[in-house]
Amino acid sequence: MTLRHIPTQPIAGQKPGTSGLRKKTKLFMGPSYLENFIQSVFDVVGCAGKTFVLGGDGRYFNDRAAQVILAMAAANGAARVIVGRDAILSTPAASHLIRLHKTDGGIVMSASHNPGGPEEDFGVKFNMANGGPATEAVSEAIYARSTEITEYRTIAAPDVDLTTIGRRQLGGMTVDVVDPVSDYAALMESLFDFPAIRAMFAGGFRMRMDSMCAVTGPYAVEILEHRLGAPKGTCLNATPLPDFGGLHPDPNPVWAHSLMEEMMGPDAPDFGAASDGDGDRNMVVGRGIYVSPSDSLAVLAANARLAPAYRAGLRGVARSMPTSAAVDRVAAAEGMAQFETPTGWKFFGNLMDAGKVSLCGEESFGTGSDHVREKDGLWAILLWLNILAVRRQSVAEVLCEHFQRFGRNYYSRHDYEAIPTEVADAMFAKLRAALPGLTGRIFGTLVVREADDFTYTDPVDGSVSERQGVRVLFDDGSRAVFRLSGTGTSDATLRLYLERYVPGPEGLDHDPQAALAPVIAAAEAIAGIMAMTGRSGPDVVT
Ligand code: VG1
Ligand code: CO
Is 486 in the pocket of ligand 1 (CB under 6 A)? Predict the structure, then answer.
């Protein structure tokens, strides 16, 4: 077992984005790429004597990357690494293990909803001792370290056997290979009314859970089919594959279209759900009805008390800025604290650690609570099941009653993908320059009340994050928000978030795109997206 100091040079661009470092798999597999980043992590957070969790979503290169990271952890003096069998852990399960074993953090290998395979994407992120993604400050420090790195440390040793559960030694380091599912499944069982959900399935309730050939398959089978008694076949695409079966493991109506088709079809099941590459996202669909993630967050906030873990009520709720204000109305009605953060789960950690919020969500199909410090796809799906089981109503009935009570925040996100970076930068420069003159301007029926570039001051540690999305607020409460994606691996993706509030009782069942037409037109007039990109419309509408 020889310790090796390998000379290396900084590699440009190892800057973590919205959620960790994501790059083309080939780049990650190239000389020193993964090694430089991992050494930068260890140099910043410290490694000697520490314990970490390691796992990933099973995508191509997951297995090799795990061996590289283990050898480097041993060389850097780690005491112990807890690894999911076959180097598999969903992101929320990794977060749970970090907290359960009170480790010093964890490394999650995933590019989440980005496609996997030798020609597609890979990613790595570091989670802190609270189980949540590294904060902005730590991510920045890791990046800074990657620009000055001169060597990385590893050991020459045979691969660790990760195929069976048990304790191994790697140099002076202990490697504990654990079942990736059992602790997480036990946590879910402790939060929700499993007997009520079990009774609902026993009564003939039909569900489809689409794991999109990604990491939640084994978790969904264990929890839904084994522990809750859902009929065999409830879980679809439940075997994780290195290339996700060539699919795009992003649970939205566009990429989960076969599930959508079944849910909108003549013999649709009662409930449909899907999750993403690493298991932190969820999509929820009722028979004949799609639930937008922002509405899902609001419904969960309004009904959380129906689940045992939240019986005493929620401490507060937080949403990312582009997420609709539907949950704000629930918070106001229930007298709960409410926070608005930049995009990315790392901004919720401080609020949860400080006990200010119990429930958080993003419009991008992410919902979670303070049971872990990541968004959690199966958790959200189980909370929905718990609510349906207790209320004995359909998804459509629950949603309809919610809109009647709170009004409806019509919402949609339009993504323009693969825009040349220069074009995107020029568009944002122009947009930012126009902000000061927008107030009072009229676009069709809408008058601009305020326009700014979102700045967030963390109420816990006072840190300030600037330029987190351009927002144009109209005087009737409608909104258009413009952001560039921070998870892509090539070119730029523009996200346009659109929202309009209708108080009801009339006008609550329109098609969202039609209801949002005035906001869509105003956004185009303000930003000139089609003119500047030459596109005739968005690539993905959710
Ligand atoms: C996207 C989503 C954001 C989410 C992030 C990570 O980021 O918009 O809400 O937190 O993905 O989710 P961006 O910068 O591309 O808009 V995941 O499930 O990909 O880890
Ligand atoms: Co994800």
Answer: yes
Cα(508)–Cα(217) distance, rounded to whole angstroms?
Answer: 36
Q: Is the dihedral of CA 528, 531, 537, 542 positive or negative?
A: negative
pTM score: 0.94
Is the CB of residue 506 less than 8 Å from the CB of residue 515? no
The most distant pair of C-alpha atoms in the chain lies apart, rounded to whole Å, by 73
Residue 136 CA neighbour count, 13 Å, CB half: 17
What is the rounded CA–CA span in Å between residue 168 and residue 88? 17
In this structure, is the dihedral angle defined by the CA atoms of residues 380, 386, 389 and 392, taken in order, positive or negative?
negative
Collapsed DSSP state (helix, strand, coil) of residue 40: helix
What confidence tens digit (pLDDT) does each residue in 143-156 have? 999 999 999 999 99
Question: Which structure tokens are listed for 184?
Answer: 């997480």
Collapse the DSSP code of 155 into the 3-class scheme (helix H, G, I; strand E, B; otherwise coil) and give the result: strand
pLDDT tens digits for range 468-526: 999 999 999 899 999 999 887 888 999 999 999 999 899 999 999 999 999 999 999 99
Q: Which atom of ligand 1 is nearest to the CA of 320?
A: 9
Task: List the residue whose alpha carbon is closest to atom 11 of ligand 1.
Answer: 487
Distance CA 131, CA 185 (A): 17
Please tell me the distance between residue 243's alpha carbon and the centre of ligand 1 in angstroms: 20
Is residue 95 within 6 Å of ligand 1 at its C-beta? no
User: What is the CA(487)–ligand 1 centre distance, in A?
Assistant: 6
- Partners of residue 166 on adjacent β-strands: 177
Residue with tokens 């654990």: 178
